[in-house]
């Protein structure tokens, strides 16, 4: 799958080989409809899998997840990922219509105990656009709690997908395989249009402990006003070639190029974001848009990192996991967040990032099909290997944009 951008419009275009993969039976569609983006996860049955299989006994795979009991059929296929801008929701509706998702959205056609016109959805848009999906597709959105979905999505990825979590600092990445027995507690920082910070103590035990309105929507909104960029991705790409020091006031600017060593601040530390714009006699048009984008990205990333660390300190948490489509696998964003967490914690806390960072809510909504007959979901391996070296990349080439997860799951409502 390739995400193509033209004239500020994000469109999803599937290559020929991807279209072939989607000729199989599609089911269990889940949506996370946020203020800025619609995230979609759906299962497509493997074309090479004829019929369904039954396991001989209950067992566990290498990830420690149970694969169910013999009376439940095993279905093989892939989870696919897709996103649309919320303001272009009609493109999402048209895509679902073209793939006839409305004819088998909630289950496989052969399964008798389900309503095929019901799909799982989370996010504020699940309420806002419920009538639209009903009118255009005949689909009823079964609304799943947003926080429940986020946590379920993260836990699924950390437990079931190899190479999902990684650290990133100074141009170097390191993938982290987390021991399931040592997963909790952790702080989930979900950066969407705004930011939610959730303390997770167990599979179904969590609480939202903080948040901030300064998030991805702030970056996109201010960036649009200040640079005239027409999309989030365009703004993010613009920031890659920018120099924030042209606009940000540094410690060295105040102290004549020297450090403020008494309190541990280097001369290159930012004393005031956009601070130089105050003292100069320049107007907005005198600054390069890429420098403005860079300064804006760094300001928001630093702010999120600091608030995240303070909440981790509040609860004695060492592991902070960042998710949401704000990050987009962008190297500079991750490096800024990581350096911020490392600085404020004096190296005691670590920032972790996820390859499927933007699909946490949609994955969690997908997992909620369990109560409707999806008894177990087991991943086998990712369709693409994690990148080995990110030092020369501006963006992590991850599964957010061009991949799927091979998996099997079982249906308890399928006739044996």
TrEMBL record:
GO MF annotation terms: ATP binding; pantothenate kinase activity
Record EC number: 2.7.1.33
Pathway as given in its UniProt record: Cofactor biosynthesis; coenzyme A biosynthesis; CoA from (R)-pantothenate: step 1/5
Reaction catalyzed: (R)-pantothenate + ATP = (R)-4'-phosphopantothenate + ADP + H(+)
Location within or outside the cell: Cytoplasm
Main location: cytoplasm
Keywords: ATP-binding, Coenzyme A biosynthesis, Cytoplasm, Kinase, Nucleotide-binding, Transferase
A UniProt-annotated Pfam family: Fumble
Keyword Cell membrane among UniProt keywords: no
Gene Ontology biological process: coenzyme A biosynthetic process
Gene Ontology CC annotations of this record: cytosol; nucleus
Record family assignment: Belongs to the type II pantothenate kinase family.
PANTHER family in alphabetical order: PANTOTHENATE KINASE (PTHR12280), PANTOTHENATE KINASE 1 (PTHR12280:SF34)
Name of this chain's protein: pantothenate kinase
UniProt lineage: Eukaryota, Viridiplantae, Streptophyta, Embryophyta, Tracheophyta
